[in-house]
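User: I'm putting together notes for a lab meeting next week and I want to include a structural view of one of the chains we've been expressing. I don't have a solved structure, so I'd like a prediction I can at least talk through. The sequence is below, exactly as it appears in our construct file.
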Amino acid sequence: MIRLLRRLSVLSALALTACGNSPSGEPMTDASYPAHPITIVVTFPPGGGTDLLARRIGASLQEQLGQPVVVENRPGASGNIGARAVAEAPPDGYTLLMVNSSFAINPGVYRNLGFDPRRDFAAVINVAFVPSVFVTPAASALRNLDDALEAAQPGKPLPFASCGNGTPQHLAGEMLARATGAALQQVPYKGCGPALTDVTAGQVPLGIVTASSAAPLIAAGKLRALAVTSPKRSPLLPQVATVAEQGVKDYALDQWHGLLAPAATPPAVIDRINVAVARIMQRPDVQVALREQGFTPATSTPAAFQSMIRADIDRYAALTEAIGLRAD
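Assistant: Thanks for the context. Below is the predicted structure for the 328-residue chain, given as structure tokens.
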């Protein structure tokens, strides 16, 4: 009888292991991972916010996991080139993708991505948010968001500089126009930097840019901030009210950043990375450094991040279809 009970106990433990759980009910971890270097592919050029975030996380992840973490920049086609490369990589946890909200916008803009953003990736963790901010030149007569909306009249649309076609900043302007009926006309730039230059110089009366890029100019008195796009005020610009606070109900657009892995990556490996990165994002020194750069640090479960991505894909697809935004 004792032998029979022991045998049943062993079989029960094996069954739990086969289902991806330990006998205690906790998720199994792959003790062999990682056994060699990990690559984080960034879909934008070196020096940008997404790249800096990936390098900070990569350096700390290397310390935690005991293997080199290499950041590889594969820019192009609004991030689709790098995403396609990771979608085709072996699903073993050694090739990860660092993306921002453009990943969820692109399916509504590009007909032929070369991959399926819903099917070909497994979410790992959301690590940060970056709000955008509506700004005007310091000498502008537009003192607040209401002034801007009143100036944006049919037949005389108010131009706004964005960081480029299909960027979160472009869509932030389109969302405001649709929510309020204001006549806003996008002036797309190749990045937030050039857009800021022309807004600061008074060449364009309104700009929608990342809060991190505008904050130094706001602090220097060269720009006036009218509103932030996030659901809550930004720690970087705590004195600036949100769009929703100023009467535009349910308005919210936060640019998120996060890590993805190829689909079919073992859940135990994804959980291992998720836990390691969450520890990094909760470190006080990391939080202080990222907030100074305009990020709002975050953590999430893989499932929660996956749900957020899918919801944003649907939301942005409806918006890009409504405004007729297509890149191919």
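A couple of points you could mention at the meeting. The beta strands are 38-42, 69-73, 95-100, 121-137, 158-162, 184-188, 206-210, 223-228, 254-262, 296-297. The first strand starts at residue 38 and ends at 42.

User: Perfect, that's what I needed.
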